[in-house]
UniProtKB/TrEMBL annotation:
GO MF terms held by the record: unfolded protein binding
Gene3D superfamilies for the chain: HSP33 redox switch-like
Pfam families (UniProt xref): HSP33
Organism, scientific name: Horticoccus luteus
InterPro entries: Heat_shock_Hsp33, Heat_shock_Hsp33_C
Protein name: Hsp33 family molecular chaperone HslO
Gene Ontology biological-process annotations: protein folding
Cellular component per GO, a single term: cytoplasm
Length: 268
């Protein structure tokens, strides 16, 4: 399988910190997402992508929830979320690789399938183990609430999400012997002063970067089956075509000559 382009390690990235709450047996993950949101917007501008304002706001909240989730997971885990909303009719896709701290995603608002209910899909690969998928239904149009429902129903434990500033988000998750009354009773105001009211022990500082890793070879791999089946239909008589990465929406121009060479060198 073609390799992805690795993240630029010279990029300082964005820090997410996790803490253990002593006496409560819970984990806190928190970060300011202003710089990660800037990188997301730079990506949109570079790729000439213009999601609707409402969809964009939903994606940013989903990105915050997803990144905090990743920071609480094992280092060898790759995760993808697809969150389907029926009102508004939109899919939010997010993916992250804890081995290199890469997170990315995109808004899908064209040809979204109408379904009886909202659906949340989570795909996880840990090390060399096979992919595990879980699917849950949820109500409403709030990504943070959807993530909380995912935790309760799929992870079988409680997670609470809070926005404590314009671009500051916190996740609190249940650990064994957790003080559930405390966790369930948390409020946004309480989380703003949690450093003063609780004893937090720093666990980790992790760095995340907006990065997909898509490249020409990856896109050719996507197009290869169609090229083998009907190259004329694929290119429509043109010498090249444009494809958008299904993960981040980045544009890639693929020439027919280049794809022919790729298919020839990867004969089935």
């Amino acid at each position: 399988m073609p390799e992805t382009t690795p993240p630029n390690i010279d990029d300082a990235g964005h820090e997410v910190r996790t803490y253990f709450v002593r006496g409560r047996n819970a984990l806190v993950a928190r970060a300011n997402f202003s710089e990660l949101f800037v990188d997301y917007y730079l990506h949109l501008a570079d790729q000439k992508m213009h999601p609707q304002a409402a969809h964009d706001a939903m994606f940013k909240r989903a990105l915050a929830a997803f990144t905090l989730h990743c920071a609480s997971r094992p280092w060898n885990e790759l995760t993808a979320w697809t969150i389907n909303f029926q009102a508004p009719l939109v899919n939010l896709f997010l993916t992250g690789d804890n081995t290199n701290g890469a997170v990315t995603g995109r808004v899908f608002d064209d040809n979204v399938k109408e379904l009886p209910e909202n659906l949340f899909y989570a795909d996880v690969v840990r090390g060399n183990q096979p992919t595990r998928r879980s699917t849950i239904s949820f109500t409403g149009a709030e990504p943070l609430a959807a993530a909380e429902k995912f935790y309760r129903q799929s992870e079988q434990r409680v997670a609470r999400y809070f926005q404590i500033g314009e671009e500051d988000f916190v996740m609190v998750t249940e650990h064994p012997d957790c003080d559930m009354a405390w966790l369930e009773g948390l409020t946004t105001e309480a989380m703003k002063t949690v450093d003063e009211t609780e004893t937090l022990a720093l666990l980790e500082r992790r760095i995340y970067r907006w990065h997909c890793g898509c490249n020409q070879e990856r896109m050719m791999e996507v197009l290869a089956p169609a090229m083998r089946h009907n190259p004329e239909e694929l290119f429509g008589g043109e010498p090249k075509l444009e494809i958008r990465c299904p993960r981040c929406g980045a544009r890639h121009a693929i020439t027919r000559e280049g794809l022919e060479a790729f298919v020839a060198s990867h004969a089935e």
